[in-house]
């Protein structure tokens, strides 16, 4: 092989082995998620005073509860309305049976706090009291009221 042919062969081999110019690009991809600030009432326990003996009237306490869960770090407020039997003129809560009423009080009507997440519910007590003198002369019946609880994040 001639010297010229050998140089041409080396040039071809080197030309094939040489890196070719390439045009590339780089981009970024964002990954995101939004955790919402959510509050939910998980369960409630009714307030039950049980059987009341008007021949031996005593003040009676009963307790219910509201269990809630909120996103960790979210402020919440739980409020209790006045109930269906509320006496606006006297400013008091009442249970009703027909035309008869039995007044009661709640120890607290509003709660607030900070959510702890959705693993363990937060339990808020609803403590209620009724006075013995208030049922001493009432007709025998089952007295009821319905109150609503409102949970706001």
Automatic annotation (TrEMBL):
Pfam families from the UniProt entry: SCPU
Domain Spore coat protein U/FanG: residue ranges: 27-149
Cleavable signal peptide: 1-23
InterPro entries in the cross-refs: Spore_coat_component, Spore_coat_U/FanG
Keywords: Capsid protein, Signal, Virion
PANTHER family in the cross-refs: MEMBRANE PROTEIN, PROTEIN U-RELATED
Protein name, per record: Spore coat protein U domain-containing protein
